[in-house]
Amino acid sequence: MALDLLDRPVNSKYLDSCEIPFEEKKAGSFIMVIFGGAGDLSKRKLLPTLYHLFKDKRLIDDFYIIGFGKPDLSDNEYRKIVDDAVKEFLNNDYDKKVIDEFLSHVLYLSADLVAPEDYKLLCRKINEVKNIFKDKDFNLIYYMAVQPGIVLNIINILEELKLCKDILKSKIILEKPFGVDKESAIKLNESILKAFDEKQIYRIDHYLGKDTVLNILFFRFANSIFEPMWNRRYIDHIQITVSEDIGIEHRGKFYEQAGVVRDIVQNHIMQLIALVACEPPVGFEADLIRDEIVKVLRTIRIMDTEYLKNNVVMGQYGRGTVNGKEVCGYREENDVSQKSIVPTYFAAKIFIDNWRWAQVPFYIRTGKRLAKRVTEIYVQFKQPPLKLFGRLCDPMEPNALIITVQPDENILLRMSVKYPGIYNHPYTVNMDFNYEKSFGIKSIPAYTRLIMDCIKGDLTLFARQDAIEAMWSFIDPINKWWENLPHKISDSPNYDAGTWGPSEASLLMSDDGRKWRFEE
Ligand code: BG6
Predict the structure, then answer these.
(1) Which residue, 298, 451, 457, 468, is the most exposed by fewest CB within 10 angstroms?
(2) Which of 270, 478, 273 is nearest to 357 (CA)?
(3) What pLDDT, in 10s, does the model give residues 336-374?
(4) Which atom, in ligand 1's list, is nearest to the CA of 242?
(5) Which residues touch 342 (CB under 8 Å, ≥6 apart)?
């Protein structure tokens, strides 16, 4: 018998039982102006994603993509760049016929992005293009794929030219960093709000576009069996690991300013914490979910200097071997100072001071050039109240739930069963859900979902300003503490590339009688 994705017999009564159609997946018409259209982010992510959406025909109506940036390129030269980018970054999906059709929707204008006079051409082009559209109610999307330093200049020019609030359905997509601390984030936002309303602002955190990240909410709130246990009564502790095997990859200048805390903790890790720990929203709508995210972010305990000293471990990688290849240390990377004290590793024990999570430690860690790439949420449950099986001296394996976000997309439940045979031995086994095995497909790349949502006007997976500020409230004391420490140059590097980070990070766990899921 044929089954559908939910293992329901095809043509069965289940499929007919609901007359409400699934949401309309098709996006409306749009013009997307990509500032920095020939830059790295555009080539790696945006252009391949837009091509992918186009290839998946039900997603897009009339549209034009206008690359806008410094290099002096003709439309055709730009199209060649787009073609190459799709070939390189979306090789399996490349189709000559489809790409040619796609490229007929791609235009380019070269401009000094901070020179208002260069925007006249852009206005003219937008007007020309919109006359071609059947649907006059189109989206005008500005994608800021540029250095953060010039974002405000661009927005000011768009505002002067009345291309922001005044234009129906105009939207702006912003990439992190949203400031470097809370104060600068507030100032930046005030300036952006002069040009755009909050509802026009799409702040991207690509982690929220990952299906497996969103699955945290589905797992928690589409099932009735886990949520009653999802609290301090049943959970011993939670570990969140975002480990990367790559280094800083030609981004020395950026990384020297940012460091691991601004690059990963302030955004991706905080979003993961929020999804794991938030209260159930009363509906799956942008503000209902974002309200819950802000609420939980505001209850993460702010760490003072004394606490930071004992519960945070930072580090920087030295030379080592990753995946069998020798790699250089952080200080030897391009555009990095040989005396840099910028951290590439962060681990901490944090607490969420609300009714649900009081006293439950959340251990979080992230780093570059670690032993392997894995993003994972590990939830360890408390032990049963009495030991009935095995010898008293045998350690008891706790129940655990492991949500692996990448590279394998898994949800795994560890539990004890009886080992076969005549003795009463408990044995730990896994109950496993694997995304690819179950659905026969890999999850879609994060940007696909996010760009689609933006075109459709769905803000659910984009960060709201109050959440950004709540994140900075937690992050600022960490950065201040680190920046004010009397660092000695010889303190770094303190871990070898290809390992699980500084040894002190293990103490963070072992001092509490626990251990990291992955360690030396
Ligand atoms: C980015 C960071 O936001 O996320 C990078 O700036 C990091 O430093 C990247 O490598 C990780 O993303 P992913 O999707 O590979 O986990």
Answers:
(1) 457
(2) 273
(3) 999 999 999 999 999 999 999 999 999 999 999 999 999
(4) 16
(5) 255, 256, 259, 316, 330, 336
CA dist., res. 455 & res. 459, Å (int): 10
Catalytic one of 52, 206, 237, 268:
268
Ligand 1, atom 9: closest residue by C-alpha:
264
Q: pLDDT tens across 59-99, in order?
A: 676 899 999 999 999 999 999 999 999 999 987 889 999 99
- Pocket of ligand 1, beta carbon within 6 A: 206, 244, 263, 375
66 backbone dihedrals φ, ψ, rounded to 5°: -115, 110
Pocket perturbation via mutation, ligand 1, pick of 244, 322, 375, 443 by most ligand atoms within 8 A of CB: 244
Q: Which residue has the tokens 């949500």?
A: 403
The pLDDT tens digits of the residues spanning 128-184 come to 888 888 777 788 999 999 988 899 999 999 998 887 776 668 999 999 989 999 999
pTM of the complete model: 0.92
Q: Is 268 a catalytic residue?
A: yes
**Three-state secondary-structure class, residue 319:** strand
Residue 468 alpha carbon to ligand 1 centre in Å: 18
Q: 177 is written with which tokens?
A: 């960093």
